[in-house]
């Protein structure tokens, strides 16, 4: 990887300035949330695993949850010079990776992650401009801060930009 490409792990977040790229792999039920300031071209990516920190006893890592991870990423971006009023979002992931005999909501973590992500973005007045969520397959995503495009790679479902 070059000096402008940053890999984001699970329950992790990073920011990049143009011409930086942000990559995360292994989005199954997890959701990758990209935030992008269209004016400064500062971008951020958080790879969340669960919807709400309040529902977990082990919630010390704020980046693990939609409710605290998105807010932490916004703070990181503002500290780097982004302006909240120009931030938009794109999301990917939230798949149902394993079939369950009983279609219990508690087991469908991917859907719950997507719903929580959208609720948090709405509560923070961050427009969601594009998404690639759901299904039963994993994703790898790469965000390019230079052009604002999110590349989504999947096995068996091809490659696309959103």
UniProtKB/TrEMBL annotation:
This is Probable chemoreceptor glutamine deamidase CheD. Its EC number is 3.5.1.44. One of its GO terms (molecular function) is protein-glutamine glutaminase activity. Pfam families: CheD. Keywords: Chemotaxis, Hydrolase. The lineage of its organism: Bacteria, Bacillati, Bacillota, Clostridia, Thermoanaerobacterales. It comes from the Bacteria. Probably deamidates glutamine residues to glutamate on methyl-accepting chemotaxis receptors (MCPs), playing an important role in chemotaxis.
